[in-house]
Fold:
Amino acid sequence: MHFVSDNCLRVNLRPHKELFSQATGEKIGVEGSIHLDLSRGTAPDWAVAEALKHFKFASRPTPGSTGGVDIPVDQWCVYIDTEQWGAQHNHPRDVIGKADAYLSNSPDFLKIELPVLRPPWPNYNELTVQGARTAEKVAVRNLETALEIGITVSALISYEEATRNNADVVALYLKALGLQQSASEEEPAAVLLEA
Structure:
């Protein structure tokens, strides 16, 4: 789940605990504490936009306030993707569930949804790697279409990585982007890969 806030904090999801054998009473291990550290300045633009709809960011320093500096909202906003956080720290599902439950029930946090990405053109997703359609054929055809309608290679890469995420197609787009950037000022997607 994705959450935003205008407050940073540290949440103790699991306290430090010593484990003892029920049979012998001997110490058999330690279960370390797990903290959810929520810090400022990590929010993507779409999350900041959602936070601005809900929070006033009244504690954010601005010119004329105490400190006299201007800290932009995107640097003051707190954001967390609990799934990504759990994977990054190798936490089990129950710990991620505790984080989701805590943040969902906190009045200081707003649960937000990832924005739905629209394809670069309506039937982009119909052309996929399958059978005789190799990654090269799909990439070349998509680059040709992008050139025809004025879509940048960067837009193709962003959408592909966020949705289908075919590593071979992304690699070919990156290659085309590299060729395009090394050429002089060309039109978007003007350098096509050889099929």
In short: DSSP finds seven helices and seven strands in the chain.
